[in-house]
Amino acid sequence: MPYPILLDPDRRLRQESHEVTEITDELILMLDKMYETMVLHDGIGIAAPQIGKNLQVAIVELDEEERFEMFNPKIIEKKGSTIDVEGCLSIPHVYGTVKRADLITLRFYDREGDELEVEADGYLSRAIQHEIDHLHGILFTDKVIEYIKEEDLETYMEEHEDD
Ligand SMILES: [Zn+2]
Fold first, then answer.
1. Does residue 61 sit in helix, strand or coil?
2. Which of 58, 101, 122, 123 has its CA 20 to 30 A from that of 82?
3. Is 160 annotated as a binding residue?
4. For 27-56, what is each residue's pLDDT tens digit?
5. What spacing in Å lies between the alpha carbon of 131 and ligand 1's midpoint?
6. 131 catalytic, yes or no?
7. What is the full DSSP assignment across 79-123?
């Protein structure tokens, strides 16, 4: 069963999430249900606060080949900057441009409890930064430069294809 997704302005989306101290079976079950919820809503990322869990757990999957399941993710290095459009499962039908670091190095624990250090760029880097913001009570609308109407999204994407 997927989780219901909390919608802005639910105050639980604005809390600082706690670090995970132990990856229990219960947390793995939560992780799998979060993934199920993300896929059901055609999302490319989801963070635990969005399902009402105040924990540093997030998932990003841009395509089926690369799924990032992250416990206690931390960005340890940022390089460059880029502007692109974002949306959020907790803020349906709202889209806007946000400035993010272009290249990030991040550390997190995976579902096995192994600590990984990964570099990401492009939209993957953006999606990870968006999800990590959720863990600190930050929504993309806090950082939006310009809102884009849903009906203008396709045009925006075409115009910025090469960015
Ligand atoms: Zn979001």
1. strand
2. 58
3. no
4. 999 999 999 999 999 999 999 999 999 999
5. 6
6. yes
7. EEEEEEEEEETTEEEEEEEEEEEEEEEEEEE-TTS-EEEEEE-HH
The one catalytic residue in 36, 119, 131, 161 is 131
Examine residue 56 and state whether it is found in any structural domain, yes or no: yes
User: In whole angstroms, what is the distance from residue 118 CA to residue 74 CA?
Assistant: 11
The total domain count for the chain is 1
> Which DSSP symbol is given to 9?
T
Two tokens, residue 73: 């993710």
Amino acid of residue 19? E
What is the CATH classification number for the domain harbouring 20? Answer: 3.90.45.10
The pLDDT of residue 6: 98
The reply to whether 18 sits in an annotated binding site is no
pLDDT of res. 128:
98
